Each structure stands twice: as C-alpha cells, then as structure tokens.
Amino acid sequence: MPGQKKLPLIPTSVVGSHGLPGWLYSSLDRVDHGEFGPTDERELYDDAVKLAIMDQERAGIDLITDGEMRRWKFVQSFYSRMTGLTSQEPLRKLGPEGYDSVPRYVATEKIKVPDGLGIVDEFEYAKSQATHNLKATCPGPVTMSIHIRERPSAYKNRLELANEFVGPINAELKALEAAGATHIQIDEPSHSIIGGTVKDYVDLFNRTVEGVKARVGLHICFGNLASRPRFERGYANIFPDIMDVTADELVLEFANREMRDIEVCEQITEAKDVMIGVVDVKSFYTEKPEEVASKIRTVLKNSPAERVGIVPDCGFFTVPRWLTVRKLESLVGGAKIIRKELTG
Ligand SMILES: [Zn+2]
What we know:
This protein is α/β, with parallel strands linked by helices. It has a single domain (22-343), classed as TIM Barrel (Alpha-Beta Barrel), CATH 3.20.20. The protein is 35% helix and 16% strand. The protein has eleven helices and nine strands. The protein has helices at residues 22-32, 38-59, 76-79, 119-129, 141-144, 158-163, 166-178, 198-208, 264-268, 289-300, 321-343, and strands at 63-64, 83-88, 104-112, 133-139, 183-189, 215-221, 249-253, 273-279, 308-312. The strands form two sheets. It has a seven-stranded parallel β-sheet with strand order 1-4-5-6-7-8-9. Helix 10 links the parallel strand 8 (273-279) and strand 9. Helix 7 packs across helix 8 (198-208) and helix 10 (289-300) packs across helix 11 (321-343). It starts with 21 loop residues before the first helix and ends with a helix. The chain binds zinc ion. The site of zinc ion (ZN) has 5 residues, from strand 6.
C-alpha cells in the first residue's frame, strides 16, 4: 500500500512528470484528430501511467508519482475543467517553443472549477498500480493562473486571480487526503510573478493548504517549458520569509544552477526537510552517482541527514524517456553511496 512504508535515510523522489513514451506523442495527435474513443483514451493514459510507475520503481525511487501522464504541458489540461475562461491563440506561432507560444486564456468572468481538478482520479489509478510510496502533485494557485492573462480580466491583478484558485485547490487536497494521499507536493513558481512580497506568496500558500494533514511539500520552480527557465534563478532573496509556509519540506532546484544558494539548506533544515535537486533536467548530461553523492555531502556538512532527501531539479516532461531513466538511476546510485557512508 502506498504511503505505508517508512522512507529510508536520504529518500529519493521525483518532482512530478516522467519522460513521455514516444508512442504517447503520436497517439495524442490522433486523439486530437478524433480517432480515439473514450475507452481507447483511458487505456492510452492508463498504459502510460503504468510505464511511468514501472520506470521509477525499477530505478529504485522511494517516493514516486504517476508521472503526470494525464497532464499536458503541466497545467494546460486543467483549463478545460474551468468555466469563465476564453482561450486565445498563442502570441507567437513561429520559431522555437517558449512561454509566448502556448495557448493563453482570458478570464471573461469569475473562474469556477465545478467538478474539481481531476487529481483525485489520477491518484486513485496510480494507487492501484504502485508498490512504492506514492506522492500526489498539484499546481499551486500562482502556477494555476500562469497562462491566464492579467489584462483584460475579471480580476484586478494576478494576486487576486491566483487567490481564486485557493478554494478549489484546498478542496482537491482534502479530497486527495480522503483518497489516501499521505504525501502531497504543491508546485509554485518564483514569487516575483504575482508582483507582491514573499509574505503575500506565503499567505496564499498557507491558505491553500489550510487544514491539510498529509505531509506537504512545496516545489519552488524557476520554469521548465521547453527546458527554459522563466525567472531570476535565485533562492537567497526569499529567505527568511519563505520559512513561514506551512509545508513540511521545500523541494528546490540546484543542479542546473551549479548548486547556487545551496547554503539556504542550512536554514531550511532548522525547521523543515529539504529535497535538493541534484540531477539537471535541462541537460542531456547524465550525472554519475558519485557526482550526485558529492552534492549530497555538501548539504550534509551543515544539515542533519534525517532532514535531507534528493530529487531531480524539476519534472522530466521535456526529457526523453530513456534519458529520464538514466538520470533516475544515477539519483538512486548517489543516495546509496551516502547511505552506506552514514550507516557503514
Ligand atoms: Zn520545477
């Protein structure tokens, strides 16, 4: 049963998405052309989830996800579950994919999520397949607002827009808990996008997870669309205020930034756990287990091992599946080296 095994020292996990199998891309084109019936579509996604779980479990990841196989470009698939939105053509259709080339939405009226976000159904299926501990992932209110234009809008600014998602996400988290989720990770971007202070960001997060008793993680993301970040990639300026989030752990990316700001882990582990990104999802380079181990050692100089775990920097959506598996194996290899050093 997921969530029932005790995690080992230096647990390994993922941030969320798994590398998509090639056949899923070609099948999704056919889905778009109306060639799949509802049963075909369900089988398609179920099979993709089975593979994502198999890859993670075989690699030896302790706390897995369903690979977010049913989501498209992280949040795009959630917008079809909302009312009040009108879609707009991408601003740019030529050239390399970027943040300006995905569909955008305008909130012509107040947004509602009448039937929930669908994450509970994702979790229920994954639970029926997983043998390792399972983590549910959910975009936070800022992430959820990210492809909705600030102007024109039924909201006066992005903070107010993001605030609209607090209720629906909180309801989804509680439903996840009722479905047996013991580990939940909320994914949010840098606070700078909402234009407010870190305190505003913390307040929004805390209201989103209010009353949730499952273990809560917060992944603070610099963006990963087409393997490109979107924000200034530093964590130092959000401390110490970010420590006021009611999360049990912070899930942060370090590998792609050559471990910049790694010293914040010392502050974090005084009160929370930290999952450190030790594998770069924006690079084709496959880290060696010893390189992963060396990054963990840097953190262990100033933090107790009981508070430290490891993850890839972000989701693997933009990484080929074969490379995703290699990177997962290196992650696990690095953790094993350190566990041996710590326990003899
Ligand atoms: Zn991320």
